[in-house]
Amino acid sequence: MRPLEIEGAWVDTPTVFKDGRGRFHEWFKAERFQDSLGQGLRLAQANCSCSVSGTLRGIHYASVPPGQAKYVTCVRGAVLDVVVDIRTGSPTFGKWEAVRLDDTTHRSVYLSEGLGHAFMALEDNSTVVYLCSEGYAPQREFGINPLDPSLAIAWPDDLLPCLSDKDAAAPTLGEAARQGLLPSFAECGAYRRGLATGALQ
């Protein structure tokens, strides 16, 4: 597992074993995760989405505590997966990082509590599965418009973005900040430290 420039985000590139029967890889291993991050991944929910080319989902996040950490991979097709730092007070606030997830490299992305997440399907039937540390709770779920010009995320220019009505109507990062909807870097760090030390279980 390799840390991204945004603190709290990681990319995992597994070893893929191939032979005449097909291929095999470990897409999540608790021991490797624990050794890299210093904490385990609590599993409360597992999600699967299948999208047509151009589908843009996100930017989604949950209020902290408890937030919602995610471990994301693409099991069919390809997506551009994007992590956005929406934590006020963070040295990389407003920055984003993109990782291509596909059914060839089998990379996974982990984003900790308080980070924003979005992805665009690059092919039809692109299927994304992700493990979540907390279950879906509508009252704690929020979004940022993924086409916010202040973020200037470099979505593929050869695809027409297809958003849900909810995502299209989501506020910009600046609007969400003014409305007090964003988590803070300090509270996210404190929450994660509590998880790592066992103070929060």
Number of separate structural domains: 1
Record the strand order, biggest sheet.
Answer: 1-2-10-7-12-5
Which H/E pattern describes the elements?
EEEEHEEEEEEEEEHHH
**What oligomeric state do these chains adopt?**
single chain
Please give the number of β-strands.
Answer: 13
- Low-pLDDT sequence parts: none
In the CATH hierarchy, the architecture is Sandwich
- The amount of beta strand, in percent, is 25-35%
CATH homologous superfamily assignment: Jelly Rolls
Overall, the morphology is: globular
Overall SS class? alpha+beta
Rg calc: 16 Å
Number of helices: 4
Helix content: 10-25%
- Fill in the CATH topology: Jelly Rolls
Keywords:
13 strands, 201 residues, alpha+beta, Jelly Rolls, five-stranded antiparallel beta sheet, six-stranded antiparallel beta sheet, globular
